[in-house]
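tool=predict chain=A
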Amino acid sequence: MKSPFNKFLYIGFLLLGLFQVFFSKDYMQATASLGIALAFDPFNQEEKWNDRPTWQKAVLIIHLAFVAALFGFGIGMNDK
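tool=predict ok
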């Protein structure tokens, strides 16, 4: 499915997650928003993972690592 709508949803959830991190300080909600953003792959979904350029793989892996780190941070901040 090649749709520019996915790019808008990806960017929207990405901005929502960053807003929740920096302004609302709601880390678990930000983790959810950023994780949902990954569901809307902004690149060509019909292209196989092995055929994608390295920079696209790096963007998605770094995004996933940030979500995992934020999840750990959110759990640590809520552990009282």
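The helical segments are 4-24, 27-39, 54-78. Residues 36 and 54 are 22 Å apart (CA to CA).
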